[in-house]
Design a protein that fits this description.
heterotrimer, A: 327 residues, Rossmann fold, 35% helix, C: 322 residues, 12 helices, 5 strands
């Protein structure tokens, strides 16, 4: 049985289900309890599970992210919310040197089954220190799984999968899609990691998008279909493990790649995809690989500037058009 | 961000790999992509339309680059050679074996097959394109060079002393041409089939002969630069042209070309326009000739100059007026100083 | 506090094992047999021994880069310990952690940590687990005076206090970070006073008096087990060797030979030996016997390590994920 709920509600359902099934699952974060989380993702869970399992932490990211590591190593399965991805920098040592490495450094003797929830994205006027999208840098740290569901359906399935995974999972949400609605089954289910989703099959060009850029890419694909361009839109949704074969097979078929992710252009996750393609599928490339990304600047506050910062449908269309010149 | 322009052949990876696998020479395939880039479909189309005139062996299956070049040099037809390389590719060793055992192939007794260099192929491609795309019309004029030579004699020492630059008559010619182009913006222009691009700068290209071909670096802003600066630019560009050390922009910026064979006993000649420019001036040797002035026979030093223009863009009358204006400047150089518009008088 | 005789003997043995192990490591390192870094615990044995004596195998500890003492005191086996130092496949971490990352979660050892202050939040998390799932179990966090200035110290102390977690914060105040003395890195002298800032008890003891350490630790641990929340226990001690093996002349760049000699006179093992003799708890012969046994145990671990193979290269790609 499916019905339409929001992205935030879908995650809430996943948390609710997992906490009910397994009393080792606990929640930690700032204002997640009484307030229900600033984006209301954890609304209602304090009342249902109590303050021992839904912990409103002090403003001490290092303590509670590191605390989650220690708790995970000793039998709990914490789901930690970092209010904005920007704040993760306050706990970087705990993420990079502790969470990501315990299992490896200890020769496999310690597991860290925790989920670290963050959100990225500009567009809500939250300014430079609350709007970044630097999730790509975590690709560079081995030992962290990274997922980015773009729909309510995938959000619920991937959260349940993340909690059940015995590894640390960085769960990347986007603040502009919390209110997006979609069909979500009532029952529990999982969405596997490492499998990109072909949101729209096509044969002329591969367009790999993440989070908020998926919907824009689909819109551009529809528009350009009317002009005779058949674009394959891929929702990457899993950054580590990465669905390499999914992306490479698509590019081998189309011979052209455009990537779309809101992170800044330099070091955007599209760059890694471009490198992958030029290393493993270069003979098939018919055109330059174009990355649609945010500009290499902090996020400006002023509304027209902030709007211009966020990659738009126009930007996707421009990138596609540039590639079309070679096809 | 502007794509980086290069002197190399531009082709997308898929085109390169396809051409290599099919044994096709990329430099012969016209590119339909942005900036003339060769696309995969261009290679496919070329392969489909190709007759027997393939300069590189096809029929016998693919061959390594080394094998192909060697075969070409020795005039060996690869069709009969069996390949022992990967997937049956013909390798250099296969060719050497074939040469050792087989009788001389066609073409070897009577002469020599020399593979064309990249430069030669590029010249061939570009000038063919120019000749077959731009309808050329030619105009000639005999220019009395005495006054110009006198001016040259007059100022050269002073300029050497004051600016440490040795000017030549060519520099005066360059200046005169540049000033004339200012009067005729539609000759300092380019036509692409749809639009006429009027260039903002007047950069005069000079054809420089090298052993393997021709290269045309352009003197920047010749209309605005002083004579000694034109001379300095000219010397530097020609020197670096001979050393093969020119930069792409120094060639690409040219808006008009002067080709001079004045050092040869050539009275006059025709030249092909250097695309995407619209005109070219050919300069023959200056020699003493008998001419009639005011009913009297006099001896004057005359150079015959030819102007070729792209008739899509430049009509005969315009070309004639240009050449006439240039002639007037060269014959009465003092008028250049006055910057009078000579085109109407 | 009346400490059972058997416990006192155990304290002695533990300190001797630590001392013997560390001295052997010092020698092996000097002769180039051990790769990587070594941060020796010589001189501080009383702290690890005194605190861990009141811990069960199920209790948790987090340790520091100078962790051999804690790990031994918590009950680790010398063979996989030595093998880990050698980087061999038979080490606690299959050779992939090294000296600074020895861990045995089964023994509650949540790892030595190479990041100053890195173990504090992890101990807090372990405390959270104990409170929710294993009431009666505690987590001990060892850290140094220099780490008490790190953000994680303050965040962890506060978090543990406000959530009343069973965590004992044991500060080994040996007077130095690497080369910067305590007087140069903080204004206060007794770190224990920082406990007041977070609303938990703070106790300072002579870290070279193993019985004093034992008593103070036992009390704090008992309180935590009973749900009484965290304590900060400061143990004043001194490391005889430099910060790491390779620190020139045992830290001559930043401390004097006289200072070292002064502290060596307060050797925790010698002090306990005097006490054992005075109270006739052990004879000199018995003490010597323990030394002999321990030396042999350490030698066996060295032989074990040297005979063990290195991990295969394929091991590089293993254990990134579970």
């Amino acid at each position: 049985m499916s019905r339409v709920i929001t992205y935030a509600q879908a995650i809430n359902e996943a948390l609710d289900y997992c906490m009910e099934q397994d009393d080792r699952v606990i929640l930690m974060g700032e204002d997640i309890g009484k307030y229900g989380g600033i984006f209301q993702v954890t609304a209602g869970l304090l009342d249902k599970f109590g303050s021992e399992r839904v912990i409103d932490t002090p403003i001490s990211e290092a303590a509670f992210v590191g605390g989650a590591v220690g708790a995970a190593m000793t039998g709990l399965r914490p789901v930690v919310e970092v209010m904005f991805i920007d704040f993760i920098t306050v706990a970087m040592d705990m993420v990079v040197n502790q969470m990501a490495k315990m299992h490896y450094m200890f020769g496999g003797r310690a597991k860290v089954p925790m989920v670290l929830r963050v959100n990225i994205g500009a567009g809500r006027g939250t300014a430079a220190q609350h709007s970044q999208s630097f999730h790509a840098i975590f690709q560079h740290i081995p030992g962290i799984k990274i997922v980015m569901p773009s729909t309510p359906h995938d959000a619920k399935g991937m959260m349940i999968e993340a909690i059940q995974d015995d590894n640390p999972v960085l769960f990347v949400e986007h603040k502009k899609i919390y209110i997006d609605k979609g069909e979500v089954p009532e029952e529990a289910y999982t969405v596997p990691f490492g499998q990109a989703k072909v949101a729209r099959p096509g044969k002329d060009l591969t367009l790999v998008a993440t989070l908020n850029m998926v919907a824009k890419s689909l819109a551009v694909a529809e528009e350009m279909a009317a002009q005779g361009v058949d674009i394959e839109v891929i929702d990457l949704r899993s950054l580590c493990p990465l669905d390499r074969d999914g992306v490479l097979d698509s590019v081998r078929k189309t011979g052209a790649l455009v990537t779309a992710d809101e992170g800044c252009k330099t070091g955007n996750l599209g760059a890694e995809l471009a490198a992958l393609v030029t290393e493993y599928a270069v003979e098939h490339l018919r055109a330059p690989i174009v990355r649609v990304a945010g500009p290499d600047t902090p996020v400006p506050f002023s509304p027209p500037l902030e709007q211009a910062f966020i990659p738009s449908e126009e930007d996707v269309k421009k990138a596609v058009s540039r590639v079309m010149e070679y096809l | 961000m502007e794509p980086v322009k290069s002197m190399q052949l531009e082709a997308v990876p898929a085109a390169r790999f396809l051409a290599r696998d099919m044994g096709l020479d990329l430099s012969l395939i016209p590119g339909s992509g942005p900036g003339g880039c060769i696309l995969r479909k261009d290679v496919e189309a070329f392969a489909a339309n190709q007759g027997e005139a393939a300069p590189v062996a096809q029929a016998g299956g693919s061959a390594t680059t080394l094998a192909r070049k060697l075969a070409q040099r020795e005039g060996l037809d690869l069709a009969g050679v069996s390949g022992t390389g990967r997937r049956g590719r013909i390798t250099k060793d296969d060719v050497l074996r074939a040469l050792a055992s087989a009788p001389a192939g066609p073409g070897s007794p009577a002469g020599q097959t020399v593979p064309a260099t990249g430069m030669r192929k590029t010249i061939a491609r570009r000038l063919s394109a120019s000749a077959f795309t731009a309808p050329h019309i030619y105009f000639f004029s005999d220019i009395k060079m005495d006054n110009l030579l006198g001016l040259y004699g007059d100022i050269k020492q002073e300029i050497l002393e004051q600016y440490q630059v040795k000017i030549s008559v060519n520099d005066l010619l360059i200046k005169a041409v540049a000033l004339t182009l200012e009067e005729f913006p539609y000759i300092n222009a380019s036509f692409d089939g749809e639009n006429i691009q009027l260039w903002a700068e007047v950069n005069i290209g000079l054809a420089v002969a090298l052993d393997e071909g021709l290269i045309v670096p352009a003197i920047a802003r010749a209309n605005k630069e002083a004579i000694w600066d034109i001379a300095a630019q000219r010397q530097d560009l020609v020197e670096r042209a001979r050393q093969r050390k020119l930069q792409g922009p120094e060639i690409e910026r040219g808006t008009f070309t002067i080709s001079s064979l004045a050092q040869y006993e050539i009275s006059h000649f025709t030249a092909i326009i250097n695309p995407p420019q619209s005109a070219i001036l050919s300069v023959g040797q200056t020699s003493e000739r008998v001419v009639v002035e005011k009913g009297q026979m006099v001896v004057r030093r005359i150079a015959t100059m030819g102007l070729a223009v792209d008739h899509r863009l430049v009509d005969g009358a315009v070309a004639a007026r240009f050449l006439t204006s240039l002639k007037k400047k060269l014959e009465r150089p003092a008028l250049m100083f006055l910057q009078l518009d000579q085109s109407t008088s | 506090m009346e400490i059972p005789t058997e416990s006192v003997r155990e304290l002695y043995r533990t300190m001797v094992v630590i001392r013997a192990f560390e001295e052997k490591v010092q020698d092996l390192y000097a002769r180039g047999h051990i790769p990587g870094l070594a941060h020796l615990y010589i001189g501080e044995e009383a702290v690890a021994a005194g605190v861990c004596a009141s811990l069960e195998p199920k209790d948790y500890i987090t340790s520091t880069h100078r962790g051999h003492g804690h790990v031994i005191a918590k009950g680790a086996d010398l063979n996989p310990m030595m093998a880990e130092l050698y980087g061999k496949a038979t080490g606690y971490c299959k050779g992939k952690g090294g000296s600074m990352h020895i861990a045995d979660v089964d023994l509650g050892i949540l790892g030595a940590n190479g990041i100053a202050g890195g173990g504090l939040p992890i101990a807090v998390g372990a405390g959270l687990s104990c409170k929710l799932k294993h009431p009666g179990q505690v987590a001990v966090c060892f850290f140094g005076d220099a780490s008490s200035n790190n953000g994680t110290f303050h965040e962890s102390m506060n978090f543990a206090a406000v959530h009343r977690l069973p965590v004992i914060f044991v500060c080994e105040n040996n007077g130095y970070g690497i080369s910067v003395s305590q007087a140069q890195h903080q204004v206060i002298q007794d770190i224990a006073i920082r406990a007041a800032a977070y609303g938990m008890p703070g106790v300072t003891v002579d870290g070279n008096d193993v019985l004093a350490v034992y008593e103070a630790a036992a009390q704090a641990i008992e309180q935590a087990r009973d749900g009484g929340g965290p304590t900060l226990l400061e143990c004043k001690t001194y490391r005889w060797r430099g910060h790491h093996e390779g620190d020139p002349n045992q830290g001559a760049r930043y401390r004097t030979k006289e200072e070292i000699e002064q502290w060596q006179k307060k050797c925790p093992i010698s002090r306990l030996e005097k006490h054992l003799t005075k109270t006739k708890t052990m004879s000199k012969k018995q003490m010597q016997g323990i030394w002999d046994d321990v030396e042999k145990e350490v030698d066996d671990s060295i032989a074990f390590a040297e005979e063990s193979p290195f991990p295969p290269l394929s091991e590089i790609q293993q254990d990134v994920f579970a």
